[in-house]
Amino acid sequence: MNKILEINSLEVKYMPNNENEKTILENISLNIEKGKIVSIVGESGSGKTMLIKSILKKLPKNIGVEKGEISFLQKNISEETILKHIGLITQNPIESLNPSMKIYKQLEEAINGEITNQAKILIEKLGILNVEEVLNSYSYKLSGGMCQRIIIAMMMLKKPDLLIADEPTTSLDMINQSSIIKELIKLQKELNMSILLVTHDLPLVMEISDYVYVLKEGKIIEEGTPKDIYDNPKHKYTKEFLESIKRKKINKKVEIKKEEVLNVQNLYKDYNNKNILNNISFNLKENEIISIIGESGSGKSTLARIISGIECSKNSFEYYFSNKRTKNMFKDKNYRQKVQIVFQNSFVSVDPRWTVYRILKEPLNNFFDISLEEKELRIKKVLESVELSNIDIHLKATNLSGGQLQRVCLARALLAKPKLLILDEFTASLDIVIRNKILDLVKKLKDKYNFSVIFITHNLDSVIRISDRFYVMKEGKILDEVNEMENLTFRSEYTKFLFESMMTGNPHYKKINS
Fold this sequence. Notes:
- The protein is an alpha/beta fold.
- Helix content is 36%, strand content 25%.
- The chain contains 20 helices and 20 strands.
- A six-stranded mixed sheet has the order 6-7-8-3-9-10, sandwiched between helices. It has a six-stranded mixed sheet with strand order 16-17-18-13-19-20, with helices on both faces.
- The two termini are 20 Å apart.
């Protein structure tokens, strides 16, 4: 075996002043052969990121390697080896790019040379069609998905011996994810490059991996080929993980006459003379969940901000909300109460200095004239509803996990007693087990509190799990409406392609030829 990376009995501990030591990684042993794709899959907090930092010698000062060794090409790994032979695709692409330097300068710096026409062709294959415009842009002017493509292009052009990919497709829609993974695998085969994929995206892992390690609470609990793990999972957690990728279907429901909560007609929006939304029309009924799915830049989030009242439309947008024709929504306090929105990045949606208690008290202060005792009672009840009854409400937002904080943001929205809840990519950064639990929780809460939901996403699996029906958007237009999963018919080839791009999660029926 030609091992390129080998980790033996690695143990990493959190050591604050040598007191209250906590083991983060315990007895980790794994190896990666030349030209192979090895995946480490696990939920948030399982230790995946600390494993990457251990390999790259980037552990924080109060966290250290207690024992074990990491070798690259049979030598102890060094910083020089890392710089020369290892590439990294990070989870947060915006933080990885320099906002004060144009993209082409950063690419040239990474590859230590000029960008050739061949390099531009590769960049174009990653879904960046206006290559020259993007190369001459700054990262802060690009979407998260576009920045992720830039980072992937940068690493592919660098041509490392080992590419570590940390959640590389989290911010990408399914079609771009599929095309980018195909290009990445093609290059990997051409260069005989090794890839360490670190992710919670189980369908992707099952699709492209040669070997898989399952990580939970800092320990490798199971390992094997994708087929071995899929056919014969041994650990209870692995079985739960695999169960989470089984899809639920949107079934045709018996039509019950319900009140129309929202009716959008002929909505337009422009930015800098560029059309962002074009003749958008759809409706939403009481206690219904509709999803709007589309790729990055399709206009989904702009539509969400207009409906919530944060932005205005081009054509003095008027629509019905609970049978009332509404204009200038954001000036209407009643409207702001009845329409609540939960954003994708929970960590920038709250003040990091605030405690959970203060975050949740804010909507009660804004919309209700009630006693302190009543506020505390409502906070207690809503925390029970979002399954956070044991949380310390005096913790600051920065001390919570992504899944916990997203539930806090959901609780904050529910405390306003909305009639319409807009969820804008609010599960995009969560692992599949937690994501499915939160989506199921939303459905339960929707029935309990009798509100309607608009779910904005680029993930078709989530849409199928949560929706009563859904709309497909591309380039600011609604292309299709899907009401049921049986006997699917599409008006658009794009919608057909979207469904064809879904990874099965079954290694016996791969859609990407790895």
